[in-house]
Amino acid sequence: MTWLSLTKATTLLDHDAQRARESLGRAISKAWIVGPSGSPAPAIDPNVPLRVQVTPSPGRRLVGRDWLERRPVLHWETSEIECLCTPWMPPRASQPAPPSQSRARIEIWREDIGRLWGAPESSAGNVPTTSSESTFGEFIQEEGSPSAAPASDPNDQ
Predict the structure, then answer these.
(1) Inter-residue contact 81 to 73 (CB < 8 Å)
(2) How far is CA 155 from CA 106, 121, 123, 124, 126, in A?
(3) Phi then psi for 22, rounded to 5 degrees?
(4) N or C: which end of the chain has fewer CB within 10 A?
């Protein structure tokens, strides 16, 4: 599994970009922030919210979650979020710098798109790979259209 930019996550989520952005924005405001260590633990509990990775500029560190929980300001094209950051300082620094508004890179855990929004591929544990990202939104659109043949559900077997 991998991390996705906001644009790629939006494309996977819904063919209607505006609807996908609204849905993703709501989920981001309740998201768990995962550290820069790589990948999060598997979401065994269905109550685990969307997981995001927020990476501030080098030499900066995030401050709190208020900027995330109160209507996050997202820059979709650059996959950035406005947040509060302070310069990184050693633990024994005498005077901490006050936080300032900044932008940080935000990425979405790919597995959560299928898990939280019920993508057809999630029931088998297979969220589309990078090469099929462009067809995933089309699949959802075709799935909901009256002319599409019903897909078989692996859980019915």
Answers:
(1) yes
(2) 34, 12, 7, 9, 14
(3) -65, -45
(4) C
